[in-house]
Amino acid sequence: MKHVLLTFILFLFFQPFFIGQTRAELVDLLNTHDKNKEYVKAEQLSLQLIAMDKKHPSCYIYWCNLGTFQAKLYKYDDALQSYNTSIEFNSKFAHAYSMRGVLFEKLNHQDKAIKDFDKALRLDAFNESALERLGAIHFKKGEYQEARNYLETLLFKNPDHFGAAANLASIKKKQGQLEESLADYNKLILHPKADARIFNERADIFLILKDYDKAKADVEKSIELDPQYAIAHITKGEIYLAQNDLVNACIYFHLAIEKGHPKAELAEYLKKCD
User: Fold this and answer.
1) CA-CA distance, 8 to 59, in Å (whole number)?
2) For a tag on the chain, would you pick the N or C end, based on fewer CB atoms within 10 A?
3) Is 127 helix (H, G, I), strand (E, B) or coil?
4) 215: three-class secondary structure by DSSP
5) By C-alpha distance, which of 231, 212, 215 is closest to 223?
6) Residue 116 CA neighbour count, 13 Å, CB half
């Protein structure tokens, strides 16, 4: 988690008296635990650092990072309290608001999440977490232009942000900008983070463009990467349907349901299969 490493590097840099060897070693060890996803150890070490410097003005950094480790351990009540404490120490720490907003999203407190993300952006106009999440929230609501504004701001700051680029490509597809969207997916597919969703999204564009061979190649790659990804099975069914192959189309629609996709959402397709 790059935010943890960055905040502690900044902390050590701007607080010369804080760079005693023991403390620096603890910080290095904490970042090692974080990198290795050893969140129980990271939580314990964060508490140790807080105990060492609980009255120091910069202790808000420890509390915020502690909340993030606790959230990764599904200790949501503890995480919320840690974020609250961080904000109590420093009400202008944008990162604490954005991370608490992420937690509120997980707890299905959408209004509180949006309020925290907005607060984070008032404090830091280029806060990546807030921009990414607000973009995703508006995207899910079908508010594509609002989503696009947040994502383009994020990509202006960080052109290599994979999640923002992927969501922006989806928005372009939704807005009918197929050639632009396809160009974006052609780049995204070369990224190390390219997953089943990315291949399926490009397959969907090829389907719209009636390039069925390319669509089928991409959707098969999507299913290869994640056999449980129900949406890819739907896309493959749609490709067969577009080619008037109802038998195979129905096979994949039913497979999507077996993979967990709600049957009601495929009702119109299933009528063709009766």
Assistant:
1) 11
2) C
3) coil
4) helix
5) 231
6) 23
Tokens standing for residue 61: 């950094």
Q: Say whether 137 sits in a helix, a strand or coil.
A: helix
pLDDT in tens, the chain (274 residues): 445 444 444 444 334 333 444 777 888 898 899 999 999 999 999 998 888 877 776 789 999 999 999 999 999 999 999 999 999 999 999 999 999 999 999 999 999 999 999 999 999 999 999 999 999 999 999 999 999 999 999 999 999 999 999 999 999 999 999 999 999 999 999 999 999 999 999 999 999 999 999 999 999 999 999 999 999 999 999 999 999 999 999 999 999 999 999 999 999 999 999 7
Query: Can you read off the two tokens belonging to residue 217?
Result: 């190649």
Tokens (6 digits) for 195: 């997953």
Q: Give the predicted TM-score (pTM) of the model.
A: 0.79
List, in sequence order, the alpha helices (H) in the chain.
Answer: 2-14, 21-35, 39-52, 59-72, 76-89, 94-106, 110-123, 128-140, 144-157, 162-174, 178-188, 196-208, 212-225, 230-242, 246-258, 267-273
Question: Strand, helix or coil at 209?
Answer: coil
Rounded Cα distance between 264 and 274, Å, is 15
> Residue 176 CB: number of other CB atoms within 10 A?
9
Radius of gyration of the chain (CA): 23
